[in-house]
Amino acid sequence: MAENRASEYREGTPCWVDAQLPDVAAGKRFYGELFGWTFREQPDLPREGVRALKDGEPVASLRRKADGRLPTVWTVFFATPDAEDLCRRIRLAGGRIIAAPLPLGDLGVHALVTDGQGAVFALWQPGTHPGFGRRHEPGTFAWVQLYTSDTEAANTFYGDLFHDALFGPGAQPDFGRAPVSDVFPAEMPPHFLVHFAVEDVAAAAEEVVRLGGRVQVPPFETSYGTAAVVTDNQGASFALLRR
């Protein structure tokens, strides 16, 4: 798909998603049935990592959590040509570096950071792995929404860091910001919610429940489509989206 070439990923474009799970085999069964994913073992990924494929193209990765005390989560990666420089700018903007840039073989360089309100996200400086092979199709990444305690501060933080991706000529961002209280209890901490495209949100939510997951927020209308918030059978939250 031409739109998914590495050159198309401006800095600040969501380019990959990764789930950290207690049981990768259980994750393969859940997402394989829900989205029709197949899987390829990735010895160059840490902690029993597997690459998820849709129609033979990479769409996500699943990894075993390094520590049982860590959250079971989906993490979004934003593209950058220079992870070291972006980490420097994140610090200056009031964010924090959780894990400094680290090469992952020849695949690329990754880092884990937070914004000024504490929402966690990752950076990806591509090597041989540019990111999604497919997106914006059923069973693939469609959107990421930041639910935050301060949308004005978030818009300033990300608008400065990722201006071209969000506001530049021809920008078609897959990234929105909204108050936590729009969807979740106000006391929930700021966080990113990864959305996967589906043809029928209600039917997909029913399938989540059949597979052992649960529905956190039933289907609702947003400015970018119909969404539902669900968790998988191990507690990782994500959203289903029909645009």
From TrEMBL:
<feature type="domain" description="VOC">
    <location>
        <begin position="13"/>
        <end position="126"/>
    </location>
</feature>
<feature type="domain" description="VOC">
    <location>
        <begin position="140"/>
        <end position="243"/>
    </location>
</feature>
<dbReference type="InterPro" id="IPR052164">
    <property type="entry name" value="Anthracycline_SecMetBiosynth"/>
</dbReference>
<protein>
    <submittedName>
        <fullName>VOC family protein</fullName>
    </submittedName>
</protein>
<dbReference type="InterPro" id="IPR037523">
    <property type="entry name" value="VOC_core"/>
</dbReference>
<dbReference type="InterPro" id="IPR029068">
    <property type="entry name" value="Glyas_Bleomycin-R_OHBP_Dase"/>
</dbReference>
<dbReference type="InterPro" id="IPR004360">
    <property type="entry name" value="Glyas_Fos-R_dOase_dom"/>
</dbReference>
<dbReference type="Pfam" id="PF00903">
    <property type="entry name" value="Glyoxalase"/>
</dbReference>
